[in-house]
Amino acid sequence: MIKKNAYAKLNLSLDIIGKRENGYHDIKTLMVMTDLYDEMSFSKSNKVEILPNFNFDIKDNLIYKAYETLKSKVGYDIPFKIEINKKIPIAAGLAGGTSNGAATFYALNELYDLNFSKDELIEMSKSLGADFTYMMTGGTKIASGIGDILEDIRPIYLENILIINPGYGVSTKDVYNKIKIDDERIDFHKILDAIYKLDIDKLNFFLRNKMEDVVFNMHRDLLEIKNKLIEFNSAALMSGSGATIFGIFEDKKSLEEAYFYFSKIYRYTYKVRVGEGFGSF
Questions:
Q1: 3-class state of residue 169 by DSSP
Q2: Residue 23 confidence (pLDDT) above 80
Q3: By three-state DSSP, how is residue 240 classified?
Q4: Is 131 in the active site?
Q5: What's the whole-model pTM score?
């Protein structure tokens, strides 16, 4: 049996820069890994089993797609059974599905002694989505292009973050279809300076996610969550295409006060940390 922890990521800002002829968008985003994760246990089987069952076609599951990619590469079947203790909300802007798929590449590589290198696995994963490049890699990164070009930057460590998910998902495709691209660019240098200094006021001024306007117009409750987090003295933002909102706190006391409030309203409320030790397969 092979066990993997598939960690959730956060976008600490997200800029939409342009749209390509093929429909993909050019972005720039600051991404970090959190200590919130799904526990995944893989074992050999005579058929593919994903437990518990998800409420969508198994062939749409990124776990299954990772398996199919590897099977096609090696030229023979590599069936498995996976049991998941799911903690990351689905369609939450935390890349939980992609993280599950990334873990599958590494787990099946070990389970069947396929002997692919990490670079080879990352290259294979790119066909399944731009997020895979980062989720297969982890760490503190600025991603550009369609999210597949990664730049290493000074590591970010944050001890007091609150994640709130309202219990429903948001379609990334729908958000991209509705987004309007502008000429105003996000200043990532100022964001990073404020993060390293943990300057909450400056973070609330500089943190931006260009997807927020579209999502908040569809889901006003998410804007209310963000504003309430700011009232609790945090720097708040939506991660990815939502629906998860997070708050960065200066100290544990403020975090606990906000957790006490939100956890009584939202089931998916988590206290998390950000660091380099999470997300490494």
A1: coil
A2: no
A3: coil
A4: yes
A5: 0.94
Q: Are 89 and 78 in contact (CB under 8 A)?
A: no
Q: What is the pLDDT of residues 167-205, one digit of tens each?
A: 998 988 899 889 989 999 999 999 999 999 999 999 999
Cβ count near 31 (within 10 Å): 27
88, 6 contact by CB (below 8 A): yes
Set 4, 28, 65, 131: catalytic member = 131
Q: How far is CA 121 from the centre of its chain?
A: 19
Q: Tell me how far apart the alpha carbons of residues 96 and 88 are, in angstroms, rounded to a whole number.
A: 6
List Cα–Cα distances, 49 to 4, 39, 268, in angstroms: 16, 16, 26
Catalytic residue (one of 4, 9, 141, 226): 9
Closest CA relative to residue 135, chosen from 157, 107, 164, 103 = 103
- Based on the residue annotation, tell me whether 9 is a catalytic residue of this protein: yes
**Amino acid type, 38:** D
Could you give the domains of the chain? 2-152 (3.30.230.10), 158-274 (3.30.70.890)
